[in-house]
Each structure stands twice: as structure tokens, then as C-alpha cells.
Amino acid sequence: IDGGYEILDLTLPAVITADLRLNAPRYVTLPMMMKAKRKPQEVVQAAALCPDLRAHVEIVGYEAPEARKVGRKIANVDELIDKLKNEAKVL
Length: 91
Description:
Blueprint: H1 30-38, H2 46-49, H3 77-86
């Protein structure tokens, strides 16, 4: 939130949104970069974060879409309007 932190306790699944200003870049100075190089990095196993790592989506099958029908050329606007009204029935 603006000017502070907000800690929420949510039950999953949940939807979380963020404000546009959240992604403002912060520029790192050289002294801070040097300090960061000396800090140890902690390795966290994925199983410690989420005990259920199995796939939740099962692919049943897939198939290619239908081939597109061949188009046709129309000589003039009157023929186009006639085909839209009578064949496609969109007008």
C-alpha cells in the first residue's frame, strides 16, 4: 500500500492485483552492489515451499483445428451485399 506494508492471510486459490506504481525501478548504487556480493545466498528447496508438487493439470488429448475453407473473390459491392444477406445471413 502507499507508504507502508499490508500483510494478508488468504486461503488459496486467491486473486491478487497490484497497482501500476508497484513496478517503479530502483537504481542500485555501487556501494550497495558491493555489499550484496558479500551476503550469503540461502537455498530453499521447492518441497519446503509447497509440499504438493504433483501436476494439477491432465492433458486428455489434442487435435489440429479444421482446415480453412477456400475463399472466393467477389466482383463488386452489390454481389458482396447479396452474399452477406442470403448466404451468410449476417445482414
